[in-house]
Amino acid sequence: MDQETIRRTITRMAHEIVERNKGAAGLSLVGIQRRGVHLAERLAAAIAAAEGAEIPVGTLNVTAYRDDRRGEGSGGEAGETRLPFEVAGRQIVLVDDVLYTGRTVRAAIAALIDRGRPSNIQLAVLVDRGHRELPIRPDYVGKNLPTSSREQVAVRLREIDGADEVVIEEPV
After folding, report:
1. Is the peptide bond preceding residue 34 cis, with omega within 30 degrees of 0?
2. pLDDT above 70: residue 3
């Protein structure tokens, strides 16, 4: 995916989110650190442009909730959790860059529920690459990208990496 494809994909996903939720009332986006945060902000901007409604955006660091990375440190580079709204009773759309095994999403759901009980949680991902280990399915997908388990999907965003692109990389 190149910059223009990512822009169009974000716009499409924003419209799908609004349509499924019958508007933007009571809706909040929560980006999973790191790249999910920037994607959530872009989705919120696209919703605001289409609907004229400001959508609150939060950030979630799920490192402490991971079941596959215990003892690897606090994930300081990932940033902190910031939820500028009450989680209880809200419609939450979790946003991440790549859905792979499902473990990050499981951790994000646990982290959210520790902060209150949302009315529902939906999942938006830029790329779904398959290979799930848990029964987790996204509600909104930018692109399904079948991969082998040895390949890596690299999502690069201008806010972090200086450019927008999604590429498949072979391990070195």
Report:
1. yes
2. yes
Query: For residue 139, what is the domain's CATH number?
Result: 3.40.50.2020
Place of tokens 């790329």: 127
The pairing of beta strand 165-169 with beta strand 152-156: antiparallel
126 in a structural domain:
yes
Check residue 166 and give its pLDDT. Answer: 98
What pTM, to 2 d.p., does this model score? 0.93
Residues in the chain: 172
Separation of alpha carbons 138 and 107, rounded Å: 15
- Residue 14: what are its φ and ψ, rounded to 5°? -60, -45
Residue 93 counted as domain residue:
yes
Question: Is residue 15 included in any domain, yes or no?
Answer: yes
Spatial distance between the Cα atoms of 154 and 168, rounded to a whole number of angstroms: 6
Q: What's the distance, Cα to Cα, between the start and end of the chain in Å? A: 22
With contact defined as beta carbons under 8 Å apart, do 100 and 131 qualify?
Answer: yes
Rounded Cα distance between 60 and 112, Å, is 8
pLDDT at 70: 56
Q: What is the pLDDT of residues 97-130, one digit of tens each?
A: 999 999 999 999 999 999 999 999 999 999 999 9
